[in-house]
Write a structure and sequence with these properties.
With about 90 residues, the chain is mainly beta. Helices cover about 10% and strands about 30% of the residues. It has 1 helix and 6 strands. The strands form 2 sheets. It has a 4-stranded antiparallel beta sheet, with no helix packed on it. Strands 5-6 form a two-stranded antiparallel sheet.
Length: about 90
């Protein structure tokens, strides 16, 4: 999570239907208290136009406060397998 120029940006996360992690990127306008979807989904879905699903990602903002960089994090395949929740709430088999 980063706060830049009156906006809070949040990426990633995990929930019961996405144990491997999410690639959701959201923007909260702190002044207007409104959310904007920037990219990704709450369910792990293949998408080459944005970062892959993960949890615990690392991120930083460049010196000009223009770009947010996202890297690392993990995809918890074992946790998803153990719980039987692999993708879109479906079981392992």
């Amino acid at each position: 999570m980063h706060i830049v120029d009156g906006h809070m940006y949040i990426f990633s996360g995990v929930h019961m239907r996405a144990m491997m992690g999410c690639n959701l990127l959201m923007d909260l306008d702190l002044k207007n208290r409104t959310w904007k979807h920037l990219s990704g989904t709450v369910l792990p879905t293949p998408d080459t136009t944005c970062p892959g699903p993960r949890r615990g990602a690392t991120s930083w903002v460049d010196e000009e406060l223009k770009k947010i960089y996202i890297m690392f994090g993990e995809i918890d395949r074992r946790g998803a397998s153990v719980t039987g929740i692999i993708c879109r709430g479906q079981g392992a088999g």
